[in-house]
Amino acid sequence: MAVRDPQFQTYVRRCHLVAGLFTFAALTAFYTVADGHLDRTARNLDADLHRNQTLVLQQPVVDARIAELQSAMETIDKQLVARRLRIPEYPAEHEFSEQLNDLATRAELAVEELRPDQYFHTANIDRMTFRVRVAGEWRGLCGFLNQVTTLERLCHVDQCRVSSDPESPSRLRCDIEVSIFSRSPIPTAALERRSQ
Question: How far is residue 128's CA from residue 109's CA, in Å, rounded to a whole number?
């Protein structure tokens, strides 16, 4: 049934026009929001792509650094194993005293004092210090110290004090504190005997 009333038809046309305008406004608003969202998404994707490209370009540098660090770790592990092999299971301080005495004799030094001094216990490694006093010429002192630091057993020169010998100005006196290490603690009875 068609209504031929001109006022009604004008009203219908106006309703269609208003509905069209609302639809156009809604679509424009949706497009603006969607376009802004798509623009932000595109910018985020561009930033992510740039970061990923940077990471890809840096990958050879990172791989080289990782290889360098792994090589350094292997070297440190080898050095650690070599050091552990230089630490005996027991202190063997008499053997060490004999070695020091032999080194001093070969360096033409007079041994004035050679004795164990202190003992330090830690969880894994024990340390014993020795007091050594030798006298002789400069060349002999240097050779002796060099030989002490290159012994097969791990030892460390903690202190070294060189002074002139009051009895002979051409001779030097050297007071040295040397540490040796062991993996097994010294029995308490032995420590008590040493302290007496």
Answer: 23
